[in-house]
Design goal:
The protein is of the alpha/beta class. The protein has eleven helices and eleven strands. The two termini are about 40 Å apart. This is N-acetyltransferase DgcN.
Length: about 350
């Protein structure tokens, strides 16, 4: 386990999506967050105290979370310098980037000299098997999206907590760096060798014989040329009984690919359902989660209504408006008891 409390790293980030890991940890584990570290040119903030490394240690922090994400997931020179400063101040360092902290000689040497730890979250478990797609018992929900970073993790966590509040057993299954840092466990599926993606998810959410739900965090999008392979492996390995479509209205293009438009909701939903049917023939769509943080409340409500009319599914913003409309559809029959094993 990564020692808490945490100091959250924002660095030089100018892109709000670039700090989504730090933001997610602050949102869902606020009691474990001491402060934020950002340089003078960083316009982003999580509303936490802005602390230097030594100040964070004095405030009780145990670990610096390098909660930024960028294309390729590499450790830049500034990031290495800041991680080194954290180690010198007495902080462990945790990262979800593809490039491993332990492979940076300067950081490895500092950690060893000071008796501190480096945590590389994107480390797939050993002994993974290829997926088989055999029917397995249990209720599983997977969030899917029109693009990357549209709120799949947030929706999954909100729905998990909503089910738990209703007395329904529900377990969040993290598949990305932010989710793993929040949950304390999971599989960083984008670090898994392609042949083993579906098998990794079968292992993450195995058969269960109660009435509970495995709530599986989605990744990427079937329509994103860079990450569709991960999304497809998740669909097959999750063997979901239920899908939630996630989308950010007004996004001008696929993240990182100017000029490539996002798919329409109906088109994207049908593509995901078709792919999911390979391992879950009876899969259903049960709702739409929109990130309306850039809209006023009245405009968001109008969009919810229009989306519900178009798709025939409950639609909400899980943070601003809650998840009750979707849970009202998810909790009653036919989802009260899984029948997957009998098919």
């Amino acid at each position: 386990m990564i020692p808490a409390p945490y100091h959250l790293y924002l660095g030089h980030s100018a892109d709000p999506l670039g700090i989504k890991t730090s933001r997610g940890v602050a949102m869902f584990r606020p009691a474990d967050c001491v402060g934020e570290f950002r340089h003078d040119d960083c316009p982003q903030t999580l509303g936490l105290p802005r602390l230097g490394m030594a100040e964070a240690v004095a405030a009780g922090a145990k670990t610096l979370i390098l909660g930024i994400a960028g294309a390729g997931g590499k450790l830049g020179a500034d990031l290495v310098d800041d991680a080194a400063a954290a180690l010198e101040a007495g902080l462990n360092v945790a990262s979800g980037l593809h490039q491993r902290l332990r492979d940076e000689p300067r950081l490895a040497a500092l950690a060893e000299a000071r008796g501190l730890q480096l945590f590389d979250v994107r480390e797939p478990p050993a002994g993974l098997s290829v997926g088989k797609g055999y029917a397995r018992a249990g209720n599983r929900l997977l969030t899917v999206g029109t693009d990357c970073s549209v709120g799949k993790m947030v929706a999954t966590l909100a729905l998990t907590r909503g089910l738990q509040a209703r007395g329904v057993a529900a377990d969040f299954r993290a598949t990305g760096q932010t989710g793993i840092l929040i949950a304390g466990e999971g599989v960083a599926v984008d670090a898994v060798v392609a042949d083993f993606i579906s098998g990794a998810i079968e292992q993450l959410a195995p058969a269960r014989d109660d009435d509970g739900w495995d709530m599986i965090e989605g990744q990427g999008s079937l329509f994103h040329p860079s990450f569709a392979g991960v999304s497809l492996g998740l669909l097959h390995g999750a063997q979901p009984r239920a899908l939630i479509m996630c989308h950010e209205p007004g996004r001008p293009h696929m993240r990182g690919i100017p000029g490539r438009a996002l798919p329409g909701l109906a088109e994207c939903l049908e593509a995901n359902l078709a792919a999911a049917r390979l391992t879950s023939p009876d899969v259903e769509a049960v709702g739409v989660c929109l990130n309306t943080s850039g809209m006023d409340a009245d405009a968001a409500r109008r969009l919810f209504a229009a989306t519900e009319d178009e798709l025939g599914l409950p639609c909400t913003d899980p943070i601003a408006f809650g998840v009750d409309p979707i849970l009202d559809k998810l909790c009653p029959a036919p989802f009260a008891r899984s029948t997957t094993a009998s098919r």
